[in-house]
Write a structure and sequence with these properties.
The protein is α+β, with helices and mostly antiparallel strands and 295 residues long. It is 38% helix and 29% strand.
Length: 295
């Protein structure tokens, strides 16, 4: 019995010495193996897509410079206009009557001036005769002094009439300026994009009448984070589209980069001039701008 127990102990010890090591060590070695990150996406060109409004340099709201009733409308929305072309007209009948009165007064003052200038010439001739007669002892000192006084008074009257003439002419010019304000004209060559008033309406000074958009190039204005400012320089070209998918696009040249960063948003403003006009790319709309990060 004792021999059987001893044999069993010997066999158990032999089997423990020949068993495989536990798999825990292998698993630990697998966990510390280093992992290499992929850089394929970083090797491609980086692009930024932003949006911004489409504007045009020549864009202006034409306002009334004088209060009055609109009696004529020569243009409407989509009308093409030339610089100085009449677009509307205010009632100017009272001004025209005032001008006629001022013009008649100016003519009357001018006639009075010519009369006094002629009178002065006569008085100066009388003074010369009185002076000659006084030297010859024919006339008295009082007669000479009287002639001198007449010349002096006539000169003052001529100067007064000349002042009245200038005032009368200035009054006519002032009314002419007011008459010009009754003619609403185009500030530059372009197209009427909006009409704010109608014929027969009473307008006040400063009230909007029309919006005129010029024929100058379109611009896009957008902002970039200050950290991306190095992506663009003046003269660089960006891609502009009226849609976000860029199915139809055109080039735009950067003409302005703000030299300072807006402290509120941390961005800089960029302006680019659009090369070609696209369908849907009109002032007031939002455009998509694609910037290729080449720097």
């Amino acid at each position: 019995m004792v021999r059987l127990v001893a044999a069993a102990l010997v066999m158990f010890g032999m089997s423990g010495c020949t068993s495989d090591p536990p798999p825990v060590a292998a698993a630990s070695a697998e966990r510390v193996r280093p992992v290499v990150a992929s850089t394929s996406s970083a090797s491609g060109p980086r692009e930024i897509v932003v949006s911004g409004p489409v504007t045009v340099e020549e864009q202006l709201d034409v306002v009334a410079l004088r209060a009055g009733v609109i009696v004529a409308m020569q243009v409407d929305v989509n009308s093409e206009v030339e610089k100085g072309q009449a677009m509307a007209r205010l009632d100017a009948r009272q001004l025209e009557a005032d001008r006629a009165t001022s013009e008649h007064k100016a003519e009357s003052v001018d006639a009075d001036l010519k009369n006094w200038e002629s009178e002065l010439q006569v008085k100066e001739a009388d003074l010369r005769r009185a002076e000659a007669m006084h030297k010859e002892g024919i006339s008295t000192q009082e007669a000479y002094d009287h002639s001198l006084y007449e010349v002096t008074a006539s000169k003052y009257e001529v100067e007064r009439q000349r002042g009245d003439e200038l005032s009368a002419k200035d009054s006519v010019r002032s009314i002419d300026l007011e008459l010009e304000k009754t003619r609403i004209v185009a500030p530059f060559r372009g197209v009427v994009s909006q009409r704010y008033v109608r014929q027969g309406q009473y307008v006040t000074v400063g009230e909007k009448l029309f919006r005129v958009i010029g024929r100058s190039s379109l611009e896009v204005r957008f902002t970039l984070p200050a950290t991306e400012a190095q992506l663009l320089r003046r003269g660089d070209v960006v891609t502009v589209s009226a849609t976000t998918d860029f199915k139809e696009s055109t080039a735009a040249t950067v003409t302005h980069l703000s030299p300072v960063v807006d402290p509120g948003s941390g961005t800089i403003e960029v302006v680019a001039v659009v090369k070609d006009r696209l369908r849907g790319l009109i002032p007031g709309t939002m455009a998509s701008i694609r910037i290729a990060g080449t720097r």
